[in-house]
Predict the structure.
Amino acid sequence: MSKLKTCILHTVLTIGGLLIIFPFLWMIATSLKTGIDIYNLSLIPKNPTIKSYLQVLQSTNFLIWFKNSLVVAAITTASVLFFDTLVGYTFAKLDFKGKNFLFVLVLSTLMIPTEMLVIPWYVMTNTFGWANSYWSLLFPGLTSAFGIFLMKQFFEAVPNDLLEAGRIDGLNEFGIFLRAAVPLIKPALAALGIFTFLGNWNAFLWPVIVVDQPELYTLPVGLAQFSGESYNQWDLVMTGASIATIPVLIIFFIFQRQIIEGIHLTGIKE
């Protein structure tokens, strides 16, 4: 590649990177602003203050909302990683009657938009008395058809000879799955885990429908309470959103190598 093309490519990527990171930096800067300065696009507050942080942490239920989101995102991520991996392995490496039909049935659920599932979920929640509970927030995300599909594709690449060697060594099928197959798909697990965590951490539609008690709000629903028809507390919204990014950043920095490798291998763009 010529120097000119390299220069153009780097310029375009730099501009794209700045456009992507600007809203994030503005969110943090706005959380340190007060008064009319909030509506200024400047990234440097005129009179920086942590007043909004103290108000959010001391005068609202923010910590409860934070805990609720963390519990819901952590449990659903753990559930998806375990069950989707197990089901993906079953579809990829075990033979049983009706396997292809069941896999197509699972894939077909990917064609149904989440918004169309809300009504059956809501009816089910009311029928079984799950409303206003952690379970009502958890159950729609405990398994994922996309995760099952992703895991199956990765397990297809695991050599059958390796699994057969495990059987000869006396491992049962779950032991082969856990000790021989799963270690070979760690990048895919990291990618699936971060996308599942992000999806549940940022979920708004289902939590705002199924929960109406403030102590059960998740972060997105709680932050929405800072805005109304006649008022918008943008400083509190930006402060809460800034704090809410901390767990996601921590997870990314810990698992960034596996996440990037998993995204590269799966071809996932976002």
In short: The chain has one domain: 52-266. The two ends are 28 Å apart (CA to CA).
